Amino acid sequence: MPEKDLPKLSINTIRFLAIDAVQKANSGHPGMPMGCAPIAYQLYTKYMKHNPANPDWINRDRFILSAGHGSMLLYSILHLCGYKISLDDIKNFRQWKSITAGHPEFGLAPGVETTTGPLGQGFANAVGMAIAQEYLGSLFNKDGIRILDHFIYGICSDGDLMEGISHEAASLAGHLKLGKLILFYDDNGITIDGKTSLAFSENIQKRFEAYNWQVLDIDDVNDLSQIDKAVEQARRETNKPTLIITKTHIGFGSPNKQDSAASHGAPLGEAEVKLTKKNLGWPEDKQFYIPEEVSDHFGEMKSAFNDYENEWNSQFETYKKKYPADAEKLLKYFSGDFGNEWAEALPSFANYSEQIATRSASGKVLNSIFQKLPTLIGGSADLAESNNTLINGQSVFSSENYSGRNIYFGIREHAMAGIVNGMSLYGGVIPYCGTFLIFSDYMRPSIRLASLMKLKTIYVFTHDSIGLGEDGPTHQPIEQLAVLRAIPEVVVIRPADANETVEAWKTAITHKESPVALALTRQKVPVLDRSKFASAENLSKGAYTLVQSEKNPQVILMASGSEVALGVDVFHSLQAEGIGARVVSFPSWELFEAQSDEFKESVLPKSVKARISIEAGVKQGWEKYLGDYGEAISIEKFGASAPYEVLFKEYGFTTENILAAVQRVLSKVHSTSKF
Ligand SMILES: Cc1ncc(C[n+]2csc(CCOP(=O)(O)OP(=O)(O)O)c2C)c(N)n1
Fold first, then answer.
1. Which end of the chain is more exposed for a tag (fewer CB within 10 A), N or C?
2. What's the average model confidence in pLDDT over 296-318?
3. CA-CA distance, 266 to 310, in Å (whole number)?
4. What distances in angstroms separate CA 266 from CA 77, 263, 562, one per listed residue?
């Protein structure tokens, strides 16, 4: 085989690995990899500085496959480059316990930078990575040594560009002039339902130009010189992200399925596979065939891949000598070690006659610790003042100042959540973002992915109940706590007062391997008197006995957030009536569930069957703590527009109403226990 054909041979190898894997799995998406194989080949072999022997090298170029359904494209090129994805892994595509999952999953196969599949998410992740790079670059790059200096490449599809999240993310990326971002748009004119013209007709070039992107085009993806020209031009543009609109053919090479939705999401079929092999000059009866020349070709790249990192390593040695403190910090940040000086800076709230909204307490915490925690960076979706996410005296992250730590995400909640995922994936930072709890609905797909990827992201959700008052039912979260709690592994924390809010942040910062969502009040709540009540430090256990009568408790009042103080009022009334009671502050189900059975029993003894939950939201899920006899003080309908004091009264969050519920529950328990 003459050397000049090696690229073509390699590209066809990528195509047929994808075709064979999908055929063997009897499921998957062959069309996209068949169309985009030249992009992957050219990027991974010619442009990207990466090292398959060390997929975590911090200055590697990133590649994001936003069109995650084309996962076999990624697995094929990663395998050929020498990442630890074996041919057997490829043969096990989509099988139980295989690292080659249906869609690329971060943490499963090496070289997969993010989990993609839900369209548009990868696009936002790439923007987040570019933001993280610029921020960390502003801290660590020096004149003459740019220690973080790489590109973020990716491929997005029609579906990615139709989804709203990409509009939001692209708009912010252009605004922030993220010049390191280079995305190919797989313009194949086909989606699942057929031609894109059924539903998609805007001018993508004009759209992205309007976002302040450089837009380039390639009219034949198989002409590698066009890819070269576009990538080189993209890399030269340092002031704008680049979109390369690339004409491709879905199912390229398949005589009967090219350019048709039939090649999108189903195996080509044995007969068509053979026809395609014949058409592209491939041995018809070989499966998972990698020509020796191709293996050798990629084998020869190994030393170049190593050299990329070695060059950086020697540059880093120089950096270390010149800037030892920075070098140490850089490595620490990327290893997730951010010291514990910040913990000493945490405030505490000792004025127990004060009333403080937990959102305000949260703002105070953020402002107290940020100096000692330079990895903490984030902002809000246009509610910075309301969410108390602003760091006073800190500059704004902008195209003129990438060292700013206040990020203005604009009113783009979905992209904001996808972007913080990208920042977290990039490493070296702890990203946080904020909005009203009600709008967590706009972020849910990205929060879910953050959890699936075990990312460290922090959500500051304020205005966490009908307690926000006059804005009314459109803004009053009712089911949102339940929605967030339903996402596996997301830790939801609804602190009762200012001191629990301090503890909630402590948990958020130290918690590893899953996102933390803080639910905070708009309205003021009492600072609970910790000289009388248990310490707020107990928050880390998820639920704890805040106060209890001397008499053995006949009833347990479980409450979260702003309703804890109400629970305490009820407790006092019960005391006056001689009824033994316990108040359990219950800020986090997930933290509580992680405790030992003994601890759980000590907080919620099985013998105490009379239980009341008090939370201004749906009761869904409280049943497991209420048991057979308990009653929930909850909200099972939408809120309303009125001052919050009126709303709490009208919705039954009053001492009288709860006392009546206690009586009902107690008599139920007593009448049953007689038998
Ligand atoms: C948010 C979301 N909605 C729907 C889907 C299901 N889905 C997978 S691929 C796809 C569209 C495919 O069209 P395109 O993005 O152009 O990819 P191509 O067919 O070119 O590979 C859809 C709707 C998804 N993965 N994510």
1. C
2. 97
3. 42
4. 21, 6, 52
Query: Rounded to whole angstroms, how far apart are CA atoms 124 and 457?
Result: 15
**pTM (global) more than 0.90:** yes
Phi/psi of residue 305, nearest 5 degrees: -60, -45
- pLDDT, residue 674, reads 55
- Among the listed residues 105, 134, 309, 413, the single catalytic one is 413
Which residues form ligand 1's pocket by a CB distance below 6 Å? 31-32, 67, 69-70, 117-119, 157-159, 163, 186, 188, 190-192, 250, 264
Looking from the CA of residue 264, the nearest atom of ligand 1 is 19
Is 503 catalytic? The answer is no
Cα–Cα distance between 243 and 210 in angstroms, integer?
A: 12
Closest by CA to 192, choosing from 298, 108, 138, 119, is: 119
How confident is the model over 353-405, as pLDDT tens digits? 999 999 999 999 999 999 999 999 999 999 999 999 999 989 999 999 999 99
In the reported structure, the alpha carbon of residue 67 is separated from the centroid of ligand 1 by a whole-number distance in angstroms of: 7
Distance of CA 380 to the CA centre of its chain: 15
The rounded distance, in Å, linking the Cα atoms of 551 and 323 is 64
Give the confidence band of 444 by pLDDT, cuts at 50, 70, 90. very high
| Cβ count near 636 (within 10 Å) | 12
- Measuring CA to CA, which residue among 556, 353, 414 is closest to residue 118? 414
What letter represents residue 462's amino acid?
T
Contact 545, 601 (CB under 8 A): no
- pLDDT tens sequence across 451-462: 999 999 999 999
